Amino acid sequence: MDDVDIGTNMGISVHWLQTGLLKEVSSEGFQSSANVYDIEPLVIRGKGRDVTCPVDGNHGSSYIHALLASGKEEEIQAVGTPLYMLSYSWNYTIQDIVETLTDFCRTNNLNPKSTYIWICCLCNNQHRVKQMQAQGKTVPFDAFQTLFYTNVTGIKNILAMMTPWKRPIYLTRMWCIFELYCAHTHPDCNLTIVIPLQEREDLKENLSGKGEDVDDVIKTLFEALASTRVQNARASLESDREAILQLIIQQSGPRGYDILNDRVNLLLREWVLGAITSLVEERNDSHQPEEAARVFHSVAYALSKVGHYKAALEMHEKALRIREDILGIDHLDTATSYRCIGSILYGQQGNLDDALLNYTRALSAFESSLGPEHPSSASLHSDIGFVLESQQHFDEALREHRLALAGFKTTHGENHSTVADCHNNVAVVLCMQGNHGAALDEFQKALAIREILLEPHHPDVVNARASISICEKYKVG
């Protein structure tokens, strides 16, 4: 790549971005909300317009080399060996880029003056790129690919910048996805995902919402940050896009796209889970413990709905510890936490003993506050019955399912779908005990209710009839 200034060994300090670059942006009449494309002609190329490039000896240098050639101590000190490489989109605003790197230094106790970042728009010679374009040429894909790998292997610490969090531009750009994938799969590379401070605060506030709001936030996060399809990404040059797609197939085989998408999405899901946990814990206010517990519970519930049960369990346990401490074990909010924990332990982890313990604690609180025949109490009897079934404690399971049946009959009446479910649950346990005659009676009661409520060919009606048919065979046998 002889005709393009690579600048591999040099980066720009975060301090200069905060001070010098933003000042130059303002001096040229731009707002900090301008993106890289906006400022590139006047600020970036403008800086090196009258400087001889030390790489090729031609007129026009990179921004970095212009700083070194200025003779000004503060500008010379703004250039140094890069500790990090920024992977980003030129569509990002200058303000977002600077604030993201500033916040990264703050949260990692790094000195902005001595933290140097390799940023392509400032470290590559944009004059050479534009000159080639003016000649009807483009910088070859192989040249940019070599440039990237040189920086990955040389710098090894990559900051992948995602913004906005609801619809990251990064994941729509072919080069960004390719950089993310290469950095993630390179054995010596450390990859960190970063977001602008304002986006971080906005996400934190959204995660502190209530009920369905939090569900929507979590769903949006996973849809936006963990549903990448490299085939749909775009590049400034279609030739680059086609070359990257071809390279993926060459390196990974016919399933190359799927392999890349799976790896990138796994990486992003892990980051999303970590970010959610970190942001929610930051939101934890010791002066408002009930509010903190509510946020933990809401996020846990939302995580369960998208299938991240381990993270959900950890959040539920945080909420439970707070609620036990300030509300007591008999409070309904505490009972709700017990039940949610029991549900994950039973349904997703198969931890029957601990699930039973949490369900029993929840039932005690619900019965104490709401009465034994309240739907919440009756539902917990069913939950406990299922756990006991799994433990093959059939007599105890039968008792719990009959208590659930009695409770729901009292609150819902005889002909309710939940009552039909309870009859079915009782019948299943009776079958397990070998009491097929009694089981058949319960299956028939369940069918009678479903026939009143549903159409003849509804799946629940069909299944109820099938259960009766099977039970009759066992009874005869």
From TrEMBL:
Coiled-coil regions listed: none
Pfam families: TPR_12
UniProt name for this protein: Kinesin light chain
Cited Gene3D superfamilies: Tetratricopeptide repeat domain
PANTHER family documented for this protein: NEPHROCYSTIN-3, TETRATRICOPEPTIDE REPEAT PROTEIN (AFU_ORTHOLOGUE AFUA_6G03870)
PROSITE patterns in alphabetical order: TPR (PS50005)
Record's keyword annotation contains Disulfide bond: no
SMART domains reported for this sequence: TPR
Organism: Seminavis robusta
InterPro entries tied to this protein: TPR-like_helical_dom_sf, TPR_rpt
TPR repeats: 293-326
